[in-house]
Amino acid sequence: MKYILDFDRTLFDTDKLIIQFRAADFDLHNLFPEMLDQFQSKQFLYDDVLPFLSSKKPADIFILTALGNTYGKKILEFQTAKVEQEPIRSLVNRVTYVMEDKGQPAADIVSQFPPQESVVFIDDLLKNCLAVKVAVPHVHCFLILRNCLSTAKTVKAAAKAGIEVIYTLTELDGRMRAL
Fold this sequence. Notes:
37% of the residues lie in helices and 16% in strands. It is an alpha/beta fold. Helix 5 (103-110) crosses helix 6.
């Protein structure tokens, strides 16, 4: 089984980092990799991330993360510095950065696998799950809601589109074992 995972708000508690940045009076619209020097990405990973990733082969884990262009031109450098720290770097096969929706990039990743390979896609944004579901319909898509702030409307829309909702990666493992 292969896994394509979003990074922010799926593996990484971005809201916690933002709180730390605000406490340090950092300009959130002008992000630089050096801003991460006083932090380790590991401290912002959700509690279930390292056990989940460690239970898989790195060759089976792909990160597909979007770059928000509202945060300036240095976002690629910033996001790379954030994502490609240890322990994440040694626990994943590859990290792909995109500016657009994730449908086609996910399809490109999936095209490298044998046709019978089961693939799981996990993201915190319904629009990304929907784009992947359209681009590669056979992929198991999961909407992860870490902070439970989504509306019943979002959960209902996910279910209608055949996208399951989860709240933790531990829950994902349980669901995949049941398939």
